[in-house]
Design brief:
heterodimer; A: mainly alpha; two-stranded antiparallel sheet; 2 strands; globular; B: about 325 residues; alpha/beta; 6-stranded mixed sheet; 4-stranded antiparallel sheet; about 30% helix; elongated; binds adenosine-5'-triphosphate; binds magnesium ion; transport (chain B); ABC transporter ATP-binding protein (chain B)
């Protein structure tokens, strides 16, 4: 079976993980609807010097923020297929486990992106959120999703305890949201300023979407997406090494 | 021809020798029953021979070639029924089989046909579009077996395929294994259930503490181990003289009396029934009841290992 064929099964299974769908699509949509409707700020000064509708800022940040938790798919599928009892069955098949792992990783990346895309379309139709060019949005979603899958993958493959790996991946997601100043205002120091702008995947994703929409040039959005892919490129060999050690 | 040849196989986990110079041959066309108590090393043996774990030393030959982890080609020709249920619970029964068949390179119509045939073989065609989580334990076990059969392997390796299931499912599975064997599939069948081995296996290997301690047909094992046979008889008048007469018969080892009942231990293979009955008629006032106990696989096992097959029970169904 080709990697694409194995991905198809992974996607089918993800589409049936209803709890994950509820948490990763249902929850952010409810949050966007509730906070966006309740909050009275409609015009805010949020992105650099640009003012943009509060709903737009909220929806884009929420959707990109929840991409950070998409790594849960990679972790769950690697755990159940390649670390628990099912691994014996898969290892007994004439199947290269690295190719199967690649299918799970790509399947999780694509599925998380599709969730993001669905939410983007939904918020545009429901709340008139401006997402800009959808082709560019797909690139941004791919960059954030892939990085988040790799973070999850490195954690689940290098830590002994899957529980700990799952908790740490949540720290990555929530930590990024905090650094981006999305949930709470961050201290006004140069260090936090830097990390709040370039040092976390959510901010980089925001730069990429908002920068393209409202920025003066394309440097910042391109640089941000470049940084996201660079981070992934650095994690890939780590994941491969951890995989060789743990999965044989 | 041997499909599998294991020589002096050693697998250590720390200080524990999970496989301790294990030897095993599997001949083409046979159903080999592998018996062993909990922790004997059966699963470790299966994982070693299928290249799922690396061993410390010894030879593994599968289909005439050395087997080691990472080798994919031999994996096309065996099917492994894992001890634990290893199905995809988010795929239907049919999708499960299609996935496994697909991994073996089956496609399109050919795959579809094979999946339907396999569903039929294990009697799940009517539940094909349901998720295995909805199945009874026995049906899940059947699907667990089917998943190792879609590609029609030459060698079927079953690691306790009938743990904890209802009698119908069990006899269905045994019939299926027999049928597959008739069609030419070689089978390695691991179980705790003596009666399954006795009903299925053409040859038996008993293992304990990581190595084989006996190998042969049930009859061969009984003969080799020289278990004594036991005969019970009830006579009308159990006199002293009768007991003396019985003990004098060649082949009789011991006679115990319990009221009217006499327990006679007999050397294996000794032909003593006629003289026993004759003596009982002459000195005991006639025979009212006779019962001879042939040693069972259970007795063989107990004698060899000093252990019950399964922790805390005698090998009967759970
Ligand atoms: N990964 C492992 N690490 C440490 N010890 C192990 C490991 N796998 C198996 N063992 C030990 O090796 C021995 C043999 O185990 P194995 O699972 O092969 O037995 P088994 O005959 O299949 O038993 P059961 O009938 O309970 O399935 C046991 O003592 C077991 O605890
Ligand atoms: Mg076992």
């Amino acid at each position: 079976m080709s990697v694409a064929g194995m991905m198809r099964y992974a996607l089918l299974r993800m589409a049936r993980s209803y709890l994950a769908l509820l948490l990763l699509v249902g929850v952010p949509l409810v949050l966007i609807a509730v906070i966006g409707t309740v909050s009275d700020y409609l015009q805010i000064e949020r992105y650099g010097d640009t003012s943009l509708p509060g709903m737009d800022y909220l929806a884009v940040s929420m959707v990109l923020g929840f991409q950070l938790f998409g790594g849960a798919y990679t972790m769950e599928f690697f755990k159940s297929d390649l670390l628990d009892a099912r691994k014996w069955r898969l290892h007994a098949l004439p199947l290269r486990i690295d190719r199967y792992g690649m299918a799970l990783l790509l399947g999780s990346t694509v599925f998380t992106m599709l969730q993001g895309l669905a939410m983007a379309i939904f918020t545009q139709l429901m709340f008139g959120v401006n997402w800009g060019n959808y082709a560019w949005l797909v690139v941004v979603l791919a960059a954030v999703s892939f990085l988040s899958q790799l973070v999850g993958l490195v954690l689940i493959l290098s830590l002994r305890s899957a529980k700990l790996a799952e908790r740490l991946s949540e720290v990555y997601g929530i930590g990024s949201m905090l650094l981006a100043g999305f949930a709470l205002p961050m201290p006004d120091t140069p260090l936090f300023e830097f990390f709040g702008r370039y040092g976390n995947p959510l901010s980089l994703g925001q730069n990429a979407v908002f920068g393209m929409l409202y920025g003066n040039d394309r440097l910042l959005p391109l640089l941000s997406v470049g940084l996201l892919f660079t981070a992934s490129a650095l994690l890939l060999p780590l994941a491969a090494a951890a995989g060789r050690r743990k999965l044989g | 021809m041997n499909l599998v040849r294991l020589e002096r196989l050693v697998k250590r986990y720390g200080d524990l020798m999970a496989l301790d110079h294990m030897e095993l041959d599997i001949r083409a066309g046979e159903i080999l029953g592998l018996l062993g108590p909990n922790g004997a090393g059966k699963t470790t043996l299966i994982h070693a021979l299928t290249g799922l774990i690396a061993v410390d030393s010894g030879t593994i030959e599968l289909f005439g070639h050395a087997m080691r982890p990472g080798k994919l080609e031999p994996k096309r020709h065996f099917g492994l029924v894992t001890q634990e249920l290893t199905l995809f619970y988010d795929l239907t029964a049919r999708e499960n089989l299609a996935f496994f068949g697909g991994i073996y390179g089956l496609k399109g119509k050919a795959l579809q046909k094979r999946v339907e045939r396999t569903l039929q073989l294990v009697g799940l065609e009517e539940r094909a579009d349901q998720f295995p989580g909805k199945f009874s334990g026995g049906m899940q076990r059947r699907l667990n077996i089917a998943a190792a059969l879609v590609h029609e392997p030459r060698l079927l390796i079953m690691d306790e395929p009938t743990v904890g299931i209802d009698p119908q499912s069990r006899s269905y599975i045994l019939d299926t294994v027999r049928e597959l064997n008739r069609q030419g599939t070689t089978v390695l069948y691991t179980t705790h259930y003596m009666e399954e081995v006795q009903a299925l296996a053409s040859r038996i290997v008993i293992m304990d503490d990581g190595h084989a301690i006996a190998n042969g047909t049930v009859d061969e094992l009984i003969a080799r181990i020289q278990l004594e046979e036991k005969l019970q008889m009830e006579v009308s008048e159990p006199t002293e003289q009768l007991i003396e007469q019985l003990q004098a018969i060649g082949g009789v080892k011991q006679v115990k009396q319990e009221g009217r009942r006499l327990l006679v231990s007999i050397r294996p293979g000794a032909d003593v029934l006629e003289p026993l009955l004759a003596a009982a008629r002459t000195y005991g006032g006639g025979v009212r009841y006779v019962n001879a106990d042939k040693p069972t696989l259970e007795d063989i096992f107990l004698t060899l290992t000093g252990k019950q097959l399964r922790d805390g029970d005698g090998g009967e169904a759970e």
